[in-house]
TrEMBL record:
GO terms for molecular function: hexosyltransferase activity. This is Glycosyltransferase. PANTHER family: PTHR34136, UDP-N-ACETYL-D-MANNOSAMINURONIC ACID TRANSFERASE (PTHR34136:SF1). InterPro entries: WecG_TagA_CpsF. The lineage of its organism: Bacteria, Pseudomonadati, Pseudomonadota, Alphaproteobacteria, Rhodospirillales. Residues 461-488 are annotated as: Disordered. Keywords: Glycosyltransferase, Transferase. The keyword Transferase applies.
Amino acid sequence: MVLATSAFFGLKLDLRAQETLCDDICDRLKNRPQDGCFRHQCLNAVKLPQAQKHAELYHALQNADCLSPDGMGIVWAARLIGIPVGQRVTGIDLMTALLPRFAKSGVRVFLLGAKLDVVDTLQKKLPIRYPGLVIAGAHHGYELDDDKLAAVIRESGADALFVALPSPRKELFVDTIAPKTGCRFAMGVGGAFDVLAGEVHRAPVPWQKCGLEFLWRILCQPRRMMPRYARGLVRFTKLTVPVIFRYQAKRLAKRTAVVLMLGGVLGAVMNSSDGNSVWAATFDPPDLSDPQAAENWIKDRMVQVTTRDDLSQTIDDIVSWVLPAEVSRENAPDGAENPIDWDGVDVSIKALLTVFQTVLKVSGANSFLIEAVIGGVIGRLLDLHPDPDRVARLITITAPNLANAIFGNRQVALFDADRTLPVWGANLSNVSVISHQTAPPEKDRFVQPFLYWIEPNTEDFKSEASSWGGSESEESAFDFVSEDASPR
């Protein structure tokens, strides 16, 4: 038997649909006679507050093998606190669904409760309505000694017991006495005997579907049912409404938090579209003299890159890390007219290249994104520097493995589809550029890169004096591992 339950005010509310529950009960009776008595109880809006006040009733419901939602009040309350109750399972509906199955499988039935004339009528009607049904015995239930009733049921040899005693005696009998009867299935059915015998008319189906069956019973028996339902429903409301309110308030708070978060993200995106980027506002890189801090900063930025705009902004920020603010993004400066300390800039570029080489070595699966940033930064530096040859040679001497990746038989992405290849003029006499378009890999669809090779001519480079001092060969602490790079 497959169990599907959920906690409901301390009780295990069964979530199985009626047909599934019938199948499980019949399977148990047929294939597992050694499992003892299966006790089924029903829960409605009147019974729940009663159980909260009376410990014995609460224990009986808690101890049930199956506790089904009998009333629509229970179904609605459960749904409002997040329990996925599909449908209610009333005592009378479950009983009438089980009887034809019992008739077919030969399960012997005992009827307990209601008035004597009602029980006699039911004993005659049920075998006619369900051919083959065996009524092992019946009793009106006005005997106060439960042990005597248990003996009568046990002597009948019944397999299934339907109890129509008043509540809470009905629930207590099913919980404690039914296992002594020898029956392997017992359930309380409330006023089902009166309805099946024709003594009481059940509410029309539309009323049942709307959850107004209690109102029908009040109209049919106002003097008896009005006080019962008035007290019960008021108590039920007091018990469930605070819990429902707290659950819905938490749910609303979560949704509000999500909406606010999405609104913040949307606002950030809209602000970044007019040049006031959130990235730019939070740009605060460490000093390049601290390689470890610089490496960690770059890695953190890589984690935040999710769109093409993010990639472009990251490249801009890293370029501004090493170039003075006076350098225009659009036009390379004229060294004669703009008194910029390019020797100091070259020192910063040299430190940045060392950090790049370390980050690229340990990038692993993110190597494609790292190379995208590195390629974009180097392309911008070549654009903006008054002597691109110096930048190319600086790359070769400072980061030989990185230079091999850029200038060797590899492609490097400058990752700006709107960008045109720079015109470097006479300064690029020793550099040849070959350009072609290619499609981006799957994981970087937001980038439409221009890929090109830069093939520097560094012949006699070591003998050439440079503004940053003698050409000192430095070996990287890491070797470039081509297997880590993403295929392009």
